[in-house]
Amino acid sequence: MSSSTGRFLVTGGAGYIGSVVTAHLLAAGHEVSVLDDLSTGHRDAVPDGARFIEGRVQEAARWLDDRYDAVLHFAAFSQVGQSVEDPDSYWRNNVGGTVELLAAMRDAGVRTLVFSSTAATYGEPATVPITEDAPTAPTNPYGATKLAVDHMIAGECAAHGLAAVSLRYFNVAGAYGRYGERHAHETHLIPLVLQVALGEREAINVYGDDYPTSDGTCVRDYIHVADLADAHLLALGAARPGEHLICNLGNGNGFSVREVVETARKVTGHAIPEVSAARRPGDPAVLVASAARAGELLGWQPHRRDLAQIIEDAWAFARRGRTDG
Fold it and tell me: What angle do CA 243, 237, 2 make, to 5 degrees?
């Protein structure tokens, strides 16, 4: 695609990452429609200036036409634990929904796609940092559905000339103004830690303190959601007909659970008690991305790599309350 302004459909644009990407698209002068069924998203998270369509991704054909330049696809269930308990809903929504979306795009002549994939496609990696040529061996249905969609997109590119980029995220965190993380059932470390600081939770559970890391706790790669949004806009320009490009997105640095908790204590000024708990099955000691390909092919670099800044932005959002997006 050219660098001129365009018209885009963002599926799942009322969710955490989708809303931030939508805000970035609007700020760049693009016209954006958000398609979201609000099953996990929030109507007040849809940025002003975007057209909102309440509907399921399976129904995208009702609204897609050749006036759209591309689709950015975030409409997926994304809770690992929930996917283990209810795999059928994940296959129906994540895979079945994308089948219908790709067909709608083909029929409408919309030939560019940026897909929200995940590092969960890799499972437990043999080596870190993780590169895109690492074996894919998901350990849960969520990761398996995302990998299935990546395979589906590759087939669409080869058979029908789709131009597509899949972006595999690691741990997304932080906030962008009034757009931040709000889940009915929170499982991510930074929001959970901030809930303790807000008095909504008594303590933070630290699952395992005997890993082969500097302080015995798991190490993860945290990427600021605004850096992530930048990558999506760059991906639109990097997509080429008939090609499926896969890029990892990450900070490039790993932070342990205890580093996150200690940094949150400094940012918030709260004690944030922690409780040691047993290891969770399947938790690798270290997960860190290599984003070299994204740097080379997208021209992307994370600019908000400091853990304190990531937590400061998330803390500012958390203190705004849960009613303003």
Answer: 115
CB 113 within 8 A of CB 73: yes
As annotated, the active-site residues are 142
CA–CA gap between residue 203 and residue 161 (Å, rounded): 51
CA nearest neighbour of 35 among 104, 118, 132:
104
Degrees to nearest 5, angle at CA 74 with 63 and 166: 110
- Digit-coded pLDDT (tens) for 46-95: 999 999 999 999 999 999 999 999 999 999 999 888 999 999 999 999 99
Report the predicted TM-score, pTM, of the whole model to 2 decimal places.
0.95
* Residue range 5-25, pLDDT digits in tens: 899 999 999 999 999 999 999
Within the chain, where are the H helices? 16-27, 80-85, 87-90, 97-108, 141-160, 189-197, 225-238, 257-268, 292-293, 307-319
The length of the chain is 325
DSSP for 15-80? SHHHHHHHHHHHHTT-EEEEEE--SSS-GGGSPTTSEEEES-GGGGGGT--TT--EEEE------H
